[in-house]
Design a protein that fits this description.
Elements lengths: L9 H35 L2 E4 L2 E4 L3 H8 L2 H31 L6 H8 L7 H12 L7 H4 L31 H26 L4 H9 L4 H30 L2 H6 L11 H11 L3 H32 L1
Antiparallel strand pairs: 1-2
Length: 314
């Protein structure tokens, strides 16, 4: 008879299963706060609420969403907002990072002060910017209400109508409220983007810059042909960070413009809030949430792909 294999001690099995038990609390939290809400949203997007309960309606919520005039309008507003938001924030962040890299006196103080907008919540920042342009007592109301500067009766940013569109129904040029919203959101995101670009600028070789200067390159050529190409991966990551924040952020719109005047600042995230909590159409809101989630995944996958391509090219 063959001798029986010796049984492994209980301590061996405990050691083998220990990693699972260590990550189990994290897995439970992920299932509760991410997996379950995602599955519930998918289920909810195919349901309609009636007095007798929920009814399966298939893709009707998506069809009704696409059939509303607010959906294409909010998509147009989102495109304008994201374009202006990214251009303003990246441009100002790059310029400020270049200035901070020059090692001017009190650079540490400037960086500390620069971080103040980043620690303010979106809701609070929106209220601050709203108070600045409120007629009669706003910080800039005296300038905005001056007919000599803004004929014929001054400018009320939060109530001024949007100009007639130039390209069919696409909402361009934007309303003054949308422009102001872009500036406020850029101010809020500027600190992080500036420090991100500043960190990338620190990696640019000083020897390469000096060699280019000896060869006769001026500041514009140094920036265009050396600095920007070397920090381009960081700029791309910053761009996608802004895109993700701009698509999903609703606090600034809620507290600053409330989607107005009219619907001129209805971005896609604020439309989701209005449909879900304003109109209580949760099925249609879930359908819109899935569309926003799909856009988020496309952006994330794009960042991962670009990062992987950049790593291979090194």
């Amino acid at each position: 008879m063959r001798s029986a294999k010796p049984r492994k001690p209980i301590s061996y099995h405990l050691r083998k299963s220990l990693p699972f038990w260590l990550i189990l609390p994290t897995l439970i939290v992920i299932i509760i706060v991410q997996v379950y809400p995602a599955l519930y949203t998918i289920w909810l997007s195919m349901q309609a609420r009636h007095a007798t309960g929920w009814e399966y309606v298939g893709t009707q919520n998506f069809e009704r969403l696409f059939g509303t005039g607010l959906f294409p309008e909010s998509v147009g507003h989102t495109v304008i907002f994201l374009t202006g938001y990214a251009l303003v924030t990246l441009t100002l962040g790059f310029v400020i990072a270049i200035l901070l890299k020059q090692k001017v006196p009190f650079t540490g103080v400037y960086i500390t002060l620069l971080f103040i907008p980043w620690i303010i919540a979106d809701i609070i920042a929106g209220l601050i910017f709203r108070l600045m342009v409120t007629p009669d007592y706003g910080l800039f109301s005296g300038i905005l209400q001056n007919p000599a500067l803004f004929p014929p009766n001054g400018l009320s940013i939060l109530t001024a109508a949007r100009p007639a569109p130039w390209f069919g129904s696409f909402p361009f040029p934007p309303s003054p409220a949308m422009i102001y919203l872009i500036l406020a959101a850029s101010w809020r995101a500027l600190p992080f983007i500036t420090l991100l670009i500043l960190a990338a600028l620190q990696t640019v070789s000083h020897e390469v810059m000096e060699s280019a200067r000896i060869d006769g390159a001026n500041l514009v050529q140094l920036t265009r042909y050396i600095t920007i190409p070397l920090i381009l991966p960081t700029m791309v990551v910053a761009l996608f960070f802004l895109m993700l924040g701009g698509i999903n952020g609703v606090g600034m719109v809620f507290s600053l413009t409330g989607g107005g005047p009219g619907t001129t600042t209805y971005v896609i995230s604020y439309l989701l809030y209005v449909i879900g909590w304003g109109q209580l159409r949760f099925g249609r809101a879930a359908a819109l949430a899935l569309l926003i989630a799909a856009v988020n995944w496309l952006l994330i996958l794009s960042v991962l792909r670009i990062t992987r391509i950049n790593d291979r090219s090194r």
